[in-house]
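Hi all, long-time lurker, first post. I run a small reading group and we've been trying to get comfortable going from sequence to structure in the token notation. Rather than ask abstract questions, I figured I'd post a concrete chain and ask someone more experienced to write out its structure so we can walk through it together at our next meeting. Sequence below, copied exactly:
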Amino acid sequence: MKEEKIKSLPFVKKLSDYFVRRARRVLKLRVSEFETISIDIHPERGTIWVWFHTPERVIGHAQFNFNGRCYHKLDNRKEG
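-- Answer (accepted) --
Happy to help. Here is the structure in token form:
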């Protein structure tokens, strides 16, 4: 079997970009404040979780329903 890099579908890419923008807006994060982003999709719950990381720790986390409404957020920048 030929191994190739997995390519995301354009719809999935646009959807993930949308939730990253929403999470940055909700948490009031600038691009310079984090290095990596993780997105967890939970279809059985109908939620999407977005995590922002620095090399040392998680600095922010936002949880959304599939309709785009934020129901939980956590900002760890205030904790030193």
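A couple of things your group might point at:
The helical segments are 10-27.
Strands lie at 36-42, 47-53, 58-65, 70-75.
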